[in-house]
Design goal:
Elements (H helix, E strand, L loop, with lengths): L2 H16 L2 H15 L5 H37 L6 H44 L2 H14 L2 H6 L5 H20 L6 H7 L4 H20 L5 H22 L2 H6 L1 H15 L4 H14 L1
Helix pairs in contact: 2-3, 3-4, 5-12, 7-10, 8-9, 9-10, 10-13, 12-13
Length: about 280
């Protein structure tokens, strides 16, 4: 094999290492999700760093493989060969050069990410009006079925306490369908934040006791149930809002949501207070 052919083969193998098809597909999906606001810059940069690390490791392994092979062949052909330390030094210098190149690529990608964030931020702040925010809130309210959640706020105490349970159960069925799992496991599978999961499970325990013993509900039981509804409803609301719109317009969303629930729950002071307190906590 001629020297030019060897170099060509070497270049092709390195190219395959650097431009791994599966990895490129992951990057393509990650960049698409980033531009759509489904993932953040931190996740994208982490993936880029992992890809860079994988490239350095694979290229290093391949270079050392070639070095060992060349050393073995020269040992067979010539009595004198460069010392292993000299070969290792040259290889390490070459690897450092490649690392510097990869660092440069990573910095350029990072700059593009920062630039893209700034562009998105400027565009969002320039284009999004209060009316746009209201439209997004209305879309989200319809998507999560907020009308039904708000309706049960106006049931009498006992009916509300009982009807809240099937509303929580419906969240799981919408996502996973029917299941034999007990209710607490279902709620855990929905991935609620820890503070919500705790109050939901507390409510489920009290509700089960009430369902089987029919003991009287205490004011604290009803207060817990109202807290559950407020936390779950606002969680669903925020989770389903367009991430980029929410990121750059939190004050507008807070104002519009506060006005909406204040007006909608005027005749229901306990729930109005609970919902508004939760909005203040979240925003």
């Amino acid at each position: 094999m001629t020297e030019s052919q060897a170099l060509t083969n070497f270049a092709k193998i390195v190219e395959k290492i650097v431009f791994d098809e599966n990895e490129l597909e992951k990057l393509k999906i990650a960049i698409k999700n980033f531009t759509q606001g489904k993932t953040g810059a931190k996740e994208l940069k982490q993936l880029l760093l992992e890809c860079r690390g994988r490239m350095v490791e694979d290229v290093t392994d391949y270079i050392f493989f070639i070095a060992r092979k060349l050393t073995t062949e020269k040992d067979k052909e010539q009595p004198q060969t460069p010392s292993p330390s000299k070969i290792e030094s040259e290889l390490r210098e070459e690897i450092n050069q490649k690392k510097e190149l990869l660092e440069l690529v990573a910095r350029r990608v990072n700059n593009l990410v920062i630039k893209n964030n700034n562009v998105n931020s400027n565009e969002d702040q320039k284009l999004i009006s209060i009316e746009d925010v209201k439209d997004e809130i209305e879309r989200c309210l319809n998507q999560i079925g907020a009308k039904e959640w708000i309706e049960i706020c106006f049931y009498d105490d006992y009916k509300f306490f009982v009807k809240l349970y099937p509303k929580l159960e419906a969240l799981y069925k919408e996502q996973f369908g029917e299941s034999e799992e007990i209710m607490k496991n279902r709620m855990k599978k929905l991935g609620f934040p820890k503070d919500i999961e705790v109050v939901v499970n507390n409510y489920i325990s009290i509700r089960n006791t009430f369902q089987h013993s029919m003991i009287d509900l205490s004011p604290s039981n009803l207060e817990l149930a109202r807290e559950v509804l407020a936390k779950v409803l606002i969680y669903l609301m925020v989770k389903n809002l367009e991430p980029l719109l929410l990121l750059h317009n939190r004050d507008k969303f807070y104002t519009c949501l506060t006005n909406f629930f204040s007006h909608r729950l005027t005749d229901n002071p306990p729930f109005r207070k609970e919902i508004l307190n939760r909005l203040k906590t979240v925003f």
